[in-house]
Write a structure and sequence with these properties.
binds zinc ion, binds ligand 7MK, 851 residues, single chain, Immunoglobulin-like, 31 strands, alpha+beta, Neutral Protease, domain 2, 26 helices
């Protein structure tokens, strides 16, 4: 039984009670884990209001108040809560519950990942462990004692510092932990298992030594070194950039195979999806390496932005997530090419967040209404939230931004606060007025900028007028970086415009001819813009803008313009200026990594977002046609760059990574040409690393290459005992572009290594099919949609969070043609009638079917 009553930001009120200390004892057992929870509770002011503790999926064994056992009629319990009337102002409450970790396939609360026990409590998982005030503004000091079989579970971990350990009867042992920092229940963690441990240490800026420990499945120690190096880099970066030092004597990371998300920042004990810890060159791609580093950084940065200062309520999630994503993006930009990192952030935003903001689940970065909190760990809260922080950084400048961050910690360390508290600290420290800027926290939808230019030759004046429009038409404060490029000298001047009204005009003097406008330098705001520029202007920007992001973006605009033209007129041949532009990219002296980004065509989803009621197959045909056209015209040049960027020996530095990216994008062009497909088998055979193997397989899957089946069989045989690598194999199988795909999908879900119980497996096959195989997902027969719906029905029971994440492409149907919209709606109506529909899916289906 679920409660389908939504909660509203406007209804926030403080709890009448506070909890100062929590002492937990876990007696671990697969079917019957006992949890003893002893809480010191007090009333904030005298009141008769009952104490209502959250609790779900729990078996209540006993309740004692001030050490006296209560009887059934001293409290009320239902499937959501436990209610007790207590007269005392301060009291000790002890609650004993029983859990069944092995049956917990939702992976929230306490569950088993393989042989190990672990927990996931954010957002509201602690209430599946014990009855509690499970809300982030209730902060307590936790002491945790874990008891388990010593041989099977030699490591018993929880938050903070180890304070006691010892042997018990019957082969059991215990370890006790104490976390000195008061924290909300969502940051609680427990892990028990047998692991290999990589240890190291970090000397902080105040010369304290912190023990670093990474726990991985036995045999995986060699794959933990990159994660350890990333952790140390993150610790040093946060000291240097923000003056933030780690605060406990030990920092632990545990990698587990069963995990709903990427990772979790539990105080002193991060739990990670093993996919974001384990990496070596044989089994992980360059992208995997990048992501491991970014996720390790993200979770580490939460220690200050999230843990030391946390959220008052879950509507404020972006307070910690937007800020922490911004911090991890800045870190990645400092560790790698800043512009390439920025381009990759913007791609995610444009291809996924914009679609979310245009779909039925659109919400402001600070949502106002929530049914299931797990549905709001979104691209909007995270990625758009990070863009909002970035805009503050742009408006204040780096120095004042840092002052703002300092003031934020000065005011709020140890507290649970709101997004407004954050903005006010930034405004107060910088003396920049952010009143209007707060609108970004209240409005859903991607704002659109309409840009008009004019030039007056008599006064040598260039004018730019920008109009903003968004759903609610209250003006937002939008920083707009521009460059004006002189057509004679090709010299460029940069300006930061601040749009605060619906429409504003700016004038610039001293131009003999109309300059070329490069808009949104570095992508200063998460907006769409409408500005018609000639091919020639776009080429000027590509070649002469100082801002490399704009160089790249102009190239993308040129390419997408032609893709859309080909869509309207399939007979169109590629004009010479487009071919020249791509040739110039290959010939330029930019870095290989940057060229690879320039040569990557705008994605299907990014393009679809800008076309109304798109026929997906027509769009895909157009993309393929442009790619084939460029490959045909520039075959020799692609081949030359392909060969030039082959490395004899594996290296893992920025240059080598860029060369692999460039080589592999060249390969993807070349192998659209039948005669060049022999390169695939050659590359696969000679590959010294996973990036190159996978690039060959991916291009082969897209191009139906003959060698594909043989290579995939070889890959499967080689990697069938490494689950994370087999995930890549499943993903490639799911992206095969021909009619056999549906029969293959049916076979693959029966593969001995496949299981819907593991979120990584589910995503690798089903997620990859829906995201990477648009041609067959959107097949006019509806078979792609039906396949997804069938899997979602199964996942609804096994793991509602994963089911809810995977339904995304089916609820964002408004951009599709009418025929497909109708097919999808029929399927969604049918799904909404399922018995035992989770809150997660219910919320999304109601939103999708409301329109
Ligand atoms: C990232 C919450 C956690 C979605 C993306 C993450 C989650 C969901 C990692 C889980 C995180 N606090 O650190 O944000
Ligand atoms: Zn996070």
């Amino acid at each position: 039984m679920s409660d389908f009553t939504p909660r509203y930001l406007a209804d926030y009120s403080e709890s009448n009670f506070s909890i100062s200390t929590v002492e937990l004892t876990f007696e671990l057992n697969e079917h019957k884990t006992r949890v003893i929870n002893r809480m010191q509770i007090s009333k904030k002011q005298p009141s008769d209001a009952p104490l209502i503790l959250d609790g779900e999926h729990l078996k209540l064994l006993s309740v004692s108040l001030n050490k006296a056992l209560l009887s059934d009629d001293d409290y009320q319990v239902n499937d959501m809560s436990l209610t007790i009337n207590v007269a005392d102002a301060e009291f000790l409450l002890e609650i004993v519950t029983e859990l069944n970790p092995i049956e917990n396939t939702a992976l929230e609360g306490l569950f088993k990942s393989g042989d190990a026990y672990c927990t996931q409590c954010e957002a509201e998982g602690f209430r599946r462990i014990s009855y509690y005030l499970d809300r982030p503004d209730v902060m307590a000091t936790f002491t945790t004692k874990v008891i388990a079989d010593k041989a099977k579970f030699p490591y018993l971990l929880s938050n903070g510092n180890k304070v006691a350990a010892g042997d018990l009867a019957n082969g059991q042992h215990f370890v006790q932990w104490h976390d000195p920092f008061p924290k909300p229940s969502y940051l609680f963690a427990l892990v028990a298992g047998d692991f290999d441990v990589l240890t190291d240490s970090f000397r902080t800026c105040s010369a304290r030594n912190v023990a670093l420990e990474i726990f991985v499945d036995k045999g995986n120690l060699d794959k933990a070194h990159h994660a350890m190096a990333s952790l140390k880099h993150s610790m040093a970066w946060d000291e240097e950039t923000f003056g933030l030092e780690y605060d406990l004597d030990i920092y632990m990371i545990v990698a587990v195979d069963f995990f709903n998300m990427g990772a979790m920042e539990n105080k002193g004990l991060n739990v990670f999806n093993s996919k974001f810890v384990l990496a070596d060159e044989k089994s992980a791609t360059d992208t995997d390496y990048f992501n491991v580093e970014a996720v390790i950084a993200h979770e580490y940065f939460h220690n200050w932005t999230g843990n030391r200062v946390t959220c008052r309520d879950w509507f404020q999630l972006s307070l910690k997530e937007g800020l922490t994503v911004f911090r991890d993006q800045q870190f990645s930009a400092d560790m790698h090419s800043a512009v390439v990192t920025r381009i990759q952030n913007v791609r995610v935003l444009r291809s996924m967040q914009f679609a979310e903001d245009a779909g039925p689940m659109a919400h402001p970065i600070r949502p106002e209404k929530v049914l299931e909190m797990n549905n709001f760990y979104t691209l909007t809260v995270y990625e758009k939230g990070a863009e909002v922080i970035r805009m503050i950084h742009t408006l204040l400048g780096a120095e004042k931004f840092r002052k703002g961050i300092d003031l934020y910690f000065e005011r709020f360390d140890g507290m649970a606060v709101t997004c407004d508290d954050f903005i006010n600290a930034m405004a107060d420290a910088s003396a920049v007025d952010l009143t209007k800027f707060k609108g970004w926290y209240e409005q859903a939808g991607t704002p659109q900028l309409n840009v008009e230019e004019s030039f007056d030759a008599d006064s040598n004046t260039y004018q730019i007028s920008i109009t903003q429009s968004n759903g609610e038409n209250t003006a937002l404060h939008i920083p707009i970086g521009i460059e004006l490029i002189s057509v004679e000298s090709k010299k460029s001047a940069a300006h930061l415009l601040q749009l605060t009204e619906q429409k504003q005009t700016w004038s610039f003097q001293g131009f003999a001819r109309k300059p070329v406008l490069a808009l949104l330098t570095g992508f200063t705001a998460p907006v769409k813009s409408q500005l018609s520029q000639s091919d020639q202007d776009l080429e000027t920007i590509m070649n002469h803008a100082d801002d490399e992001f704009c160089q790249w973006d102009a190239g993308q605009t040129l390419l997408s313009t032609y893709i859309k033209r080909v869509m309207a007129a399939p007979e169109l041949t590629l004009p010479s200026n487009l071919i020249d532009a791509v040739r110039n990219i290959l010939h330029s002296d930019a870095s290989a990594a940057f060229k690879a980004e320039q040569l990557t065509l705008p994605s299907f989803s990014e393009l679809a977002d800008s076309i109304e009621e798109v026929d997906p197959i027509a769009l895909l045909d157009a993309i393929d046609k442009v790619k084939l056209g460029l490959a045909t015209e520039l075959e020799a040049l692609f081949l030359q760059h392909y060969q030039q960027n082959i490395q004899q020996e594996f290296a893992n530095d920025g240059k080598a990574i860029g060369q692999r990216a460039l080589k592999n994008i060249c390969l993807s062009y070349l192998t659209t040409l039948a005669p060049q497909q022999s390169l695939l088998a050659e590359q696969y055979q000679n590959a010294t690393n996973m990036t190159d193997s996978l690039a060959a397989l991916n291009s082969a899957a897209k191009g139906n290459a003959e060698s594909f089946t043989i290579m995939m069989a070889d890959f499967e045989q080689k990697w069938n005992s490494t689950a994370l690598v087999m995930d890549k194999w499943f993903s490639i199988q799911a992206s095969v572009c021909d009619e056999t795909i549906y029969a293959n999908l049916a076979k693959l879900i029966k593969h001995p290594l496949f299981t819907l119980n593991n979120p990584n497996r589910a995503r690798s096959l089903i997620g990859a099919f829906t995201m990477n195989n648009p041609r067959y997902f959107h097949c006019s027969s509806g078979r792609g949609y039906q396949f997804l719906i069938e899997q979602i029905k199964l996942l609804n029971i096994i793991n509602p969070q994963v089911a809810s994440r995977m339904i995304t492409p089916l609820i964002q149907f408004s951009s599709l043609d009418q025929k497909r919209q109708k097919m999808i709606k029929t399927l969604l109506v049918d799904l909404s009638k399922q018995e035992n529909l989770s809150k997660d899916l219910k919320e999304k289906l109601d939103a999708a079917l409301a329109g």
